[in-house]
C-alpha cells in the first residue's frame, strides 16, 4: 500500500489518511528559485473559456523527436484547454514520460493504516495544546489572521494546528477562492494516453517506510521551522497573488515571454522544503533527491528518444526554461532543443503546420491509425 502522503507527510498527518488510502505523489521538481518582485495584493483577473495553452518544446536527434509540455501550478479553474496539439503528439508517440516525482510507500495494509489515524491527527496539532497565537510572533499572527479571515473564515480548529499544516490549508483554500485550482491538464493527458494505447512511464524515486508509527513519533520530535513556513505562505498571499494569476494566465494563453519573466516557485514547496531539509527529511532519504530525480528523468528521456521515433514528456515549466534545467542538460548532451516560439528554420513554429505528433519522417505519424 502507498501511504497517502500529500506534501510527503500531510496525508499521514491529516484526516485524508483515513479517507484515501491510495497513491500520493510529491512532485519535488515543482520548486525553483523565486525572483524578487514588487507586485502588490490586487484582485487578480483569471482567464476563462477556451485557451490554447503553451506550445510544445521539441527535443530531437537522429530523426527522433520528443515533444515536451511545460506545466505550471496553479492554473485557472474556468479555462478549457484547446489541447489538439498535445493530443496529436501523444497519438503519434511510443512513450509518455510523467513529471519526475518522489513518492512514499508503506506495506502496513489498509486496516493497520487506519489505526494510525489518531496518531496522525495528534501529530498535526501543536504540542501541549498550544494555539498559533502561542507559537507565532505577534505581528505574524496578526497577518495570519487577516489571510485566515479572507480565505478560511470562522474556522477555529485550525488555530491548534502546527504552522506548516495551517499554511498548507490556507494556501489550498486561497487558490480555491481565487479560482486558481484548475486541473485541466491531467484528465486530458490520461484520456489521450488511453486512446493511444500507451502506458505512462513513471519517473519516480520511491521511499519505503518500514515503521510509519515511529515516523509519526519522529515528526513530533523533529526540529522543523514551522514558523518560517507559515510566514512565507502569508507573505506570498499578501504580495504575490497577482503574480500567480499572471503566470496561470500566461500558461493558458500561451504567452511564453511572460512565462520566462515570471518566477516559478511553488507556494507548497516553500513549506515542504522545511520538512525535507530537516533531520527527518534526511531519514526519509531526501538528502540527494533532486539529483536522483534529475538523473532518473534524463535517463528515461534519452531511452525514450533512442527507442521511439516520437515520444512525449511533461516537466515543470521552470525545468523547461531554466538555463541549467533538464532540457538545457539534454542540449548539452548533443540533442537539439527548440522552443515553440523559435523563429529558426526547422523549429516547432514550422512543423506545427502538419500534425504536431509527426517525427522528421511524416510517414510515422499514421502508424497508430
Topology:
Blueprint lengths: L15 H4 L5 E2 L22 E3 L5 E5 L2 E8 L7 E3 L2 H8 L4 E2 L3 E6 L3 H6 L1 H8 L7 H4 L2 H14 L11 H15 L7 H12 L3 E2 L2 E6 L2 H10 L4 H14 L1 H13 L2 H6 L5 H10 L2 H5 L5 H19 L2 E7 H5 L4 H7 L3 E3 L9 H4 L18
Parallel strand pairs: 2-5, 4-10, 6-8, 6-10, 7-9
Antiparallel strand pairs: 1-7, 3-4, 3-11
Helix pairs in contact: 2-8, 6-7, 6-10, 7-10, 7-13, 10-13
What does it look like?
The chain is an alpha/beta fold and 369 residues long. It has one domain (16-368). It has helices at residues 16-19, 84-91, 110-115, 117-124, 132-135, 138-151, 163-177, 185-196, 212-221, 226-239, 241-253, 256-261, 267-276, 279-283, 289-307, 317-321, 326-332, 348-351, and strands at 25-26, 49-51, 57-61, 64-71, 79-81, 96-97, 101-106, 200-201, 204-209, 310-316, 336-338. The two termini are 38 Å apart. Residues 1-42, 108-121 and 344-369 have low confidence and may be disordered.
Global morphology = globular
Q: What composes the largest sheet? A: 6 strands, mixed
Q: Ends: how far apart?
A: 38 Å
Beta percentage is 5-15%
Give the % helix: 40-55%
- The main sheet orders its strands as 8-6-10-4-3-11
Question: How many DSSP E strands?
Answer: 11
Mean pLDDT: 75
Number of domains: 1
SS summary, helix count: 18
Q: Using the CA coordinates, give the radius of gyration.
A: 22 Å
**Unreliable residue runs:** 1-42, 108-121, 344-369
Structural class: alpha/beta
Order of helices and strands: HEEEEEHEEHHHHHHEEHHHHHHHEHHEH
Amino acid at each position: 500500500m502507498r501511504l497517502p502522503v500529500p506534501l510527503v507527510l500531510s496525508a499521514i498527518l491529516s484526516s485524508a489518511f483515513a479517507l484515501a488510502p491510495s497513491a500520493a505523489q510529491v512532485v519535488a521538481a515543482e520548486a525553483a528559485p523565486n525572483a524578487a518582485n514588487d507586485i502588490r495584493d490586487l484582485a487578480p483577473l483569471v482567464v476563462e473559456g477556451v485557451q490554447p495553452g503553451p506550445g510544445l518544446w521539441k527535443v530531437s536527434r537522429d530523426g527522433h523527436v520528443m515533444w515536451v509540455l511545460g506545466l505550471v501550478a496553479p492554473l485557472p479553474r474556468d479555462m478549457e484547454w484547446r489541447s489538439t496539439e498535445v493530443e496529436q503528439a501523444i497519438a503519434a508517440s511510443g512513450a509518455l514520460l510523467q513529471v519526475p516525482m518522489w513518492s512514499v510507500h508503506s506495506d502496513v495494509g489498509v486496516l493497520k493504516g487506519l489505526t494510525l489515524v489518531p496518531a496522525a491527527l495528534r501529530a498535526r496539532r501543536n504540542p501541549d495544546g498550544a494555539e498559533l497565537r502561542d507559537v507565532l510572533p505577534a505581528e505574524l499572527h496578526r497577518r495570519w489572521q487577516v489571510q485566515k479571515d479572507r480565505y478560511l473564515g470562522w474556522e477555529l480548529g485550525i488555530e491548534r494546528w502546527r504552522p506548516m499544516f495551517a499554511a498548507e490549508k490556507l494556501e489550498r483554500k486561497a487558490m480555491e477562492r481565487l479560482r486558481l485550482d484548475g486541473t485541466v491538464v491531467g484528465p486530458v493527458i490520461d484520456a489521450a494516453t488511453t486512446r493511444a494505447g500507451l502506458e505512462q512511464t513513471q519517473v519516480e524515486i520511491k521511499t519505503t517506510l518500514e515503521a510509519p508509527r515511529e515516523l509519526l513519533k519522529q515528526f513530533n520530535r523533529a526540529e522543523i521551522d514551522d514558523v518560517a513556513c507559515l510566514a512565507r505562505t502569508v507573505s506570498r498571499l499578501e504580495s504575490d497573488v497577482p503574480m500567480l494569476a499572471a503566470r496561470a494566465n500566461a500558461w493558458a494563453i500561451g504567452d511564453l515571454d511572460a512565462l520566462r519573466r515570471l518566477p516559478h516557485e511553488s507556494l507548497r514547496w516553500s513549506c515542504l522544503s522545511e520538512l525535507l531539509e530537516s533531520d527527518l527529511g534526511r531519514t526519509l532519504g531526501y538528502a540527494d533527491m533532486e539529483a536522483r530525480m534529475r538523473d532518473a528523468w534524463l535517463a528515461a528521456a534519452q531511452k525514450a528518444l533512442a527507442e521511439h521515433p516520437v515520444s512525449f514528456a511533461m516537466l515543470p515549466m521552470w525545468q523547461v526554461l531554466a538555463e541549467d534545467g533538464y532540457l538545457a542538460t539534454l542540449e548539452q548532451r548533443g540533442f537539439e532543443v527548440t522552443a515553440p516560439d523559435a523563429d529558426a528554420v526547422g523549429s516547432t513554429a514550422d512543423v506545427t503546420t502538419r500534425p504536431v505528433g509527426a517525427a522528421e519522417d511524416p510517414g510515422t505519424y499514421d502508424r497508430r491509425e
